[in-house]
Design brief:
alpha/beta, nine-stranded mixed beta sheet, seven-stranded parallel beta sheet, 20 helices, 23 strands, 36% helix, 20% strand, globular, disordered C terminus, identical protein binding, GATASE, pyrimidine biosynthesis, EC 6.3.4.2, nucleotide-binding
């Protein structure tokens, strides 16, 4: 097993996740099998209880693990399926060490950070690194490990020590250090001192970089490259420029390839493989840059922030929209609409924000309401669902977005249910359209939801002579496996009445009692899903329901539905960038 470790210095937010993913893509393109591990030094067991404002979205893995959004980057870039073990946290390591101590596994020794915690980290890494993640037999060739946080942080010290020990234990170990090379406006030149100090800190902790990945606004100048090579004791060919590529992160692997980054990595790992083949990846990146005709999707969310849009809270949703838009040859334009700004209270308190939010909603080609927790902004989401239903605007509701669509229908169409609600928001409602799942925990929030991959079976509509939109998008299969993260569900006791009124539950779990997909038959595209399809969307293999939304928004839905009979992902077989190669 070969190891590539990516660390960061100076500051957070440098793009270590995209760098790690891009290195993985480059190694895959050389014919190597790649797996990934993300180390998060926080004390939490996982990301499941963290606020989206602070930490961004919680990415749900196939086995139900709640992880950092960087694992979503790995899965999308490398098209692999990771597990919760691919995300190591201080909380997980400490829990494992303490469980061993209670069992007497350390034979009476004093349990210490070194060697017990550092050994546990190394054992975890080596165990997970050998697990296949690409559906093939046998272990991968290379494991890319990203160390979260910034080198020198007190919480990451045990992990840095463990990685230093691992480098001697395994031998084939390449360290890539990501650091910032700023340009001071008063001077106008790239300054290398922050990177020099960052590398000095790294060396003082027992690790020496083999490659420097320098983040900057513009390409790294020759003088800066030579200065860094000399002061940080690496060759000039191992100083990489990771300058800004705009919104097209698919350019990053190409940027690395053009600087022969693969040669630098392979040389350290003692590997002799073919040159990287990035034809498909390059075609997709060029297609992205060439798109002109826009499709506008209003994303109505609650985790928007007060001073700036917190896009990380909906990271996978935005990426899934992008995958679908590129496949349909449209330039994605997301209008971020804070759900609270659609509510009547905002009209009184901040009329400008109210007007701006409604102008975005009314100007959109399609509306997407994603998941969320808590009652703040829910009435705004309900208003968005109502606007889409009444004005026949394509609508996709995910998790809570499906639930608010059901609540809105009950309030507006079933005339005796104007007070319909979810028990999450009103425990005393007389018409509970959405209820707490019986197997859920009311005392513990971490890891207690309905999580991970679950099967949804498509159901025939007995009340209306229309086909199942979702089933057609998925290629007319009988069932589909998608990832979930929820505590509340549509009240099964009310389903019959909803369906009699025209709201059809076209997807259910294996028992037939838990509602997974809802559709409005007389609407051009009005679909809600209890699961999170964004987590399995990939470049070149977009999520079928996201494709349906974008296709409906740009007038291509019938074409997509006609094609979908040949492939279960809703498309004809393509070369990964949308060109049909087989029907």
């Amino acid at each position: 097993m070969k190891y590539v470790v990516v660390t960061g210095g100076g500051m957070s937010g440098l793009g270590k996740g995209v760098t790690s993913s891009s290195v993985g893509v480059l190694l895959q393109a050389c014919g190597l099998r790649v797996t990934c591990i993300k180390i998060d030094p926080y004390l939490n067991i996982d990301a499941g209880t963290m606020s989206p404002f602070e930490h961004g979205e919680v990415f749900v893995l196939q086995d139900g693990g709640e992880a950092d959004l960087d694992l979503g980057n790995y899965e999308r870039f490398l098209d692999v399926t990771l597990t919760s073990d691919n995300n190591i946290t201080t909380g997980k390591i400490n829990r494992t060490v303490m469980e061993k101590e209670r069992r007497g596994a350390y034979l009476g020794k004093t349990v210490q950070v070194v060697p017990h915690v550092t050994d546990e980290i190394q054992d975890w890494i080596q165990r997970v690194a050998h697990a296949p993640v690409d559906g093939k037999e046998g272990p991968p060739d290379v494991c890319v490990i990203e160390l979260g946080g910034t080198v020198g942080d007190i919480e990451s010290c045990p992990f840095v020590e463990a990685l230093a020990e691992l480098s001697y234990r395994v031998g084939d170990f390449c360290l890539i250090h990501v650091s910032h090379v700023p340009v001071l406006s008063a001077v106008g030149e790239q300054k290398t001192k922050p990177t020099q100090h960052s590398v000095r800190t790294l060396r003082s902790l027992g690790l020496a970089p083999n490659i420097l990945a320098c983040r900057s606004n513009s390409p790294l100048e020759g003088y800066a490259r030579e200065k860094l090579a000399r002061s940080c004791h690496v060759s000039s060919g191992s100083v990489l420029s990771l300058h800004d590529v705009g919104k097209n992160v698919w350019r990053v692997p190409i940027l690395l390839r053009d600087q022969k980054a693969h040669e630098a990595v392979l040389r350290v790992l003692n590997l002799d493989v073919k040159e990287p083949d990035l034809k498909e990846w390059t075609a997709r990146a060029e297609l992205f840059d060439a798109l002109v005709e826009p499709v506008r999707i209003a994303l109505v969310g609650k985790y928007m922030g007060l001073t700036r849009i917190n896009k990380d809270a909906y990271f996978s949703v935005e990426k899934a929209l992008l995958h679908a838009s590129v496949a349909l040859r449209k330039k994605l334009a997301v209008d971020w609409v804070p759900a609270e700004d659609l509510e009547d209270g905002t009209a009184q308190e901040n009329p400008n924000a109210y007007k701006a939010a409604w102008n975005k909603l009314k100007g959109a080609d399609g509306i997407l309401v994603p998941g969320g927790f808590g009652d703040r902004g829910v009435e705004g989401k309900i208003l968005a669902a109502k606007h889409a239903r009444e004005n026949r605007i394509p609508y996709l509701g995910i998790c809570l977005g499906m639930q608010v669509a059901v609540i809105e229908f009950a309030r507006s169409v079933l005339l005796d249910m104007q007070d319909a609600n979810s028990t999450e928001f009103d425990a005393e409602t007389k018409n509970p359209c959405v209820v707490f799942m019986p197997e859920g925990s009311r005392t513990h929030v971490g890891g207690t939801m309905r999580l991970g991959s679950r099967r949804t079976y498509f159901h025939h509509n007995d009340h209306h002579d229309v086909g199942c939109m979702a089933a057609r998008l998925y290629g007319n299969v009988s069932y589909v496996d998608e990832r979930h993260r929820h505590r509340y569900e549509v009240n099964p006791e009310m389903v019959a009445r909803f369906e009699e009124a025209g709201l059809w539950f076209s997807g259910r779990d294996e028992s037939g009692e838990r509602m997974e997909i809802v559709e409005l038959g007389e609407h051009p595209f009005y679909v809600g899903v209890q699961f999170h399809p964004e987590f399995k969307s990939r470049p070149g293999k977009p999520s079928p329901v996201f494709t349906g939304l974008v296709a409906a928004a740009c007038g291509q839905l019938e074409s997509v539905l006609q094609q979908s009979h040949g492939e279960s992902n809703g498309f004809e077989k393509t070369d990964g960038v949308g060109k049909v190669v087989e029907k």
